[in-house]
């Protein structure tokens, strides 16, 4: 059996114990399988666990949240049904604190603040529309943001979503601030990036461990992509 080739500890694998597997997902990789039939992160993780622990059968991997295919960064997978059940509840109750970094082509005005919209997902076109007033079919969505500074000729924003809606950060930044994310042509940026990713990265995640109750913080290194190079000076 060949070892899956994307996994290296400290780079893709940020943490592992008996209940959790925390991955720094590369952009372009699905978290969970869809109609494309492309191999998702969940299957790669199961193969990794099967190889590492020489399991004769399929390894358990539970998906409790997702980030979009063109987005990079932290994804938590459950290795046990107990962890999966508790993580699902924590995500549902917004008890997991998430921080994203985003690159935009223009600065946000104001430079920091809170955005609240009602988001309506068009499942046929796979796009989300943001409404500033309450919408009968919309889900209330909230995030806070701040401009960290210039990163080359781009602007680096730190975004903390309070809720976790499909395409939430992408559509709220584009609609609420007029600052679409670099490469995100679906939400108004002028051109794609060469690797067809978008400059949105799930940078930091903090939660109480679902079994041990320990407070845990995970930080994901930025992708090895030229558009992120200037942002590395903001590492703390």
Automatic annotation (TrEMBL):
UniProt keywords, alphabetically: Isomerase
One Gene Ontology term of the molecular function aspect: 23S rRNA pseudouridine(1911/1915/1917) synthase activity
Top EC class of this enzyme: isomerase
PROSITE patterns with a match to the protein in the record: PSI_RLU
EC number assigned by the record: 5.4.99.23
Domain Pseudouridine synthase RsuA/RluA-like residue range list: 19-174
UniProt keyword annotation of Cytoplasm present: no
Nucleotidyltransferase found in the keyword field: no
Entry's family note: Belongs to the pseudouridine synthase RluA family.
UniProt-recorded name of the protein: 23S rRNA pseudouridine1911/1915/1917 synthase
């Amino acid at each position: 059996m060949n070892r899956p080739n994307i996994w290296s500890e400290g780079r893709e694998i940020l943490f592992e114990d008996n209940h959790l597997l925390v991955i720094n997902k590369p952009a372009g990789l699905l978290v969970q399988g869809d109609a494309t039939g492309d191999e998702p992160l969940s299957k790669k993780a199961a193969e990794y666990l099967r190889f590492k622990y020489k399991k004769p059968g399929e390894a358990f991997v539970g998906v409790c949240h997702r980030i979009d295919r063109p987005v990079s960064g932290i994804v938590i997978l459950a290795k046990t049904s107990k962890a999966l059940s508790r993580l699902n509840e924590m995500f549902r109750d917004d008890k997991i604190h998430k921080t994203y970094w985003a690159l935009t082509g223009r600065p946000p005005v104001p430079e920091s603040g809170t955005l609240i919209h009602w988001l309506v997902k068009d499942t046929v076109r796979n796009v989300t529309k943001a409404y500033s007033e309450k919408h009968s079919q919309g889900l209330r969505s909230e995030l806070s943001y701040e401009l960290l500074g210039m990163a080359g000729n781009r602007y680096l924003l730190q975004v903390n979503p309070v809720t976790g809606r499909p395409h939430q950060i992408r559509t709220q930044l584009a609609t609420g601030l007029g600052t679409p994310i670099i490469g995100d042509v679906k939400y108004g940026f002028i051109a794609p990036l060469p690797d067809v990713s978008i400059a949105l990265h799930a940078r930091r995640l903090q939660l109480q461990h679902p079994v041990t109750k320990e407070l845990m913080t995970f930080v994901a290194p930025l992708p090895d992509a030229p558009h992120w190079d200037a942002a590395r000076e903001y590492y703390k």
